[in-house]
Design a protein that fits this description.
The N terminus is likely disordered. Helix 5 packs antiparallel against helix 6, helix 6 packs antiparallel against helix 7 and helix 7 runs parallel beside helix 11. By secondary structure, the protein is an alpha+beta fold. The protein has 4 domains: 151 residues, Sandwich (Immunoglobulin-like); 131 residues, Sandwich (Jelly Rolls), CATH 2.60.120.260; 345 residues, Alpha/alpha barrel (Glycosyltransferase); 93 residues, Maltose phosphorylase, domain 3 (Sandwich). Strands 13, 14, 15, 16, 19, 20, 21 and 22 form an 8-stranded antiparallel sheet that branches. The radius of gyration is 27 Å and the shape is globular. It starts with a helix and ends with a strand. Helices cover 26% and strands 26% of the residues. It is built from 18 helices and 36 strands.
Length: 758
Amino acid sequence: MNAIKKDFFILLLCICHGSIAWGQDVPVGLTVNLLSSPEKVFQNGYLVNINPDEATLRKEPFRFTEISTRNPVFGWIVPESVNNTVQTAYQILVAESKQQLLVDSADLWDSGKVLSSLSSNIPYGGKPLKAGSICYWKVKTWDGHGRESSFSNISQFKTSNKLTDYATDRYPIQKQDNYPLEVKHLQKGQYFADFGKAAFGRVRINLFSDHGTDTVVIHLGEAARDGRVDRNPGGTIRYSRFTIMPEKGMNTYIVTIPHDTRNTGPQAILVPEYIGEVTPFRYCEIENYKHPLQEKDIVRETVSYPFNDAESYFRSSDTILNQVWEISKYSIKATSFLGVYVDGDRERIPYEADALINQLSHYCVAREYNMARYTHEYLIHRPTWPTEWILQSVLMAWEDYLYTGDSRSLANFYDDLKAKTLSALADEKGFISSRTGRVTPEVLKSIYFDGQLRDIVDWPHTGILGLEKEEGGETDGFVFTDVNTVVNAFHYRAVTLMAQIADVLGKGDDHTMYLKQAARLKQVFNDELFDKKRGYYVDGIGTSHASLHANMFPLAFGLVEAKNVESVLGFIRSRGMACSVYGAQYLLDAIYNAYDASYGLQLLTSTGERSWYNMIRSGSTITMEAWDNKYKPNQDWNHAWGAVPANIIPRKLMGIEPLEPGFGKISIRPQPGSLEFAEVKHPTIRGDVSISFTNNPGKTFRLEVHIPANTTADLYLPFFSRKQEVQMNNQPAQYKRKGNFSVIENVGSGKWSFTVEQ
């Protein structure tokens, strides 16, 4: 084949594969059932460079995602080369062979040209899918100018051997090899390896023996002291000791982690057999080894759910804030080792309170939705004991829909979610209580719980785990009564969201009922739990005690009347961080919802004992279960409910939140406080949202924004005064004043710059 013919042939193949676009840019980021990489194949946990169609023909034990639903949903990202790009139509082709798609033919489904702006959650509409088969698909789109893209690259997925009407599919657990950042030779026969960050995994090590009579000791731990692995770190901070008897010559050994009865019980999520048992550690110390040892000789087989570090970033002018972001983001990755959100290594049990924080944070650091959905659906049928945590199932369901735009889970679990509002426990005023005899066997059965509901507020309580000293528990002295303010704040939030869920699913009667229920509860809540003389909420009916928790939850959930926001916020400020790392989620939500950016930044960047920086200072590289060991003596150093800043920074400080489900419309409302500079990339189902700002408070604010195609955004800029000048792409801009914000509505996709000058 001569050169000209060869070049023409390559060009023809490129056109057929859709890699050259003559009009609109080619769709990218294809998803099936919200999974962007169902074609990834793993062997013994390691990613291998083959596709499912190849893997099915080989004898090795490969693993990959299998699509379990008869009618999966498809999605993609619409790229833009110009501002204000909007999709107006699409065409999907699905076929049993790649060859058919190469000639733009499809034997399973040809959607034809569909006039629609939808680019996610498009249900399969072709011939019935065969169980255990490989399917291939691609898509092209049209934009608002009628320009047609080429077809996307071809993607593939395998269907499960058993297809159902609804299921949530996940990726297999992944292994990656990590080498130590350094290996120190301490003294004769002793080495100390530091992997830089803790992770769940095991050690693979190359050892040489002259005679095969040696005994090498391996120490693994999360903490170090005086340049050695800490043998007695306290609490449930991990340390373990192993011995290896090397055979003669050079050989590779895997340190086998024994099962721990503490985290392998009947409620625990078990590590898959193809992965092998793991333990969290950062440091590895080797004793009684008489030969040279280098970084390449020690490998940590690190285990996590597949995670793309490049999908998000955050940087700012505050070095502490940057460190807080990094430990929080990394915690979401490091604690994903089971493919389900769990409470760390001590129990490895999913809890609703952990899962909601995990969920929000995971959405902000990765384009991943199925791990959160799987965990939420798992917990619907396996709830835990706290009253408020039962209620959080409704919150998780709504966040799932808000971030994905996919209502299938809402529809499938609708009746279960209704029960999870705990409306069956309501008295004649609308308050719910777990103490007034309304927790019947029928109620417990409706929420799949076999046990005793108990109000938690925060954890641990005073008197638990030996916390009778001045530290106390994490509830700020909360006084428990029959009508609990925190419980009923959660109930109000659940009922409010059920009204929206009912509306989404077209259940008009339920929508009206829940709206009325929420309005009634809000009225009685403020009539009976708000102390008008002092200007803040008490802990419950029958007590005059007021805690941080009794005030931050109502403020976070929209219960506080506008005239009382400042007094409630003042009380919240007076209490500092008098809550756990779990409670900090709602404290910061409340503060930023009330637009107190300065106080929010103060808490995020605090260097006090009750701060995220204290976790870093203590030596942990994954967020802790508590601010410090003294606040929870049995705490884990690997607990993602402490990773609150991973969602608070993008959602509240940088202000990126969905206004419509699936990010059909976005709110961008930065609240920088005194922060001089910051930039963030936030992955969404429609593509990345990127913003950066420079801030001279009260004088100048500059904002650079990238909005993904096929969506719009409302931009909230600071309002300085009526004399201010607001520009958009260096041109005077029209805005609306809303409180302390200058709002520019319905900004289209693309790159934009904004300036506010006094």
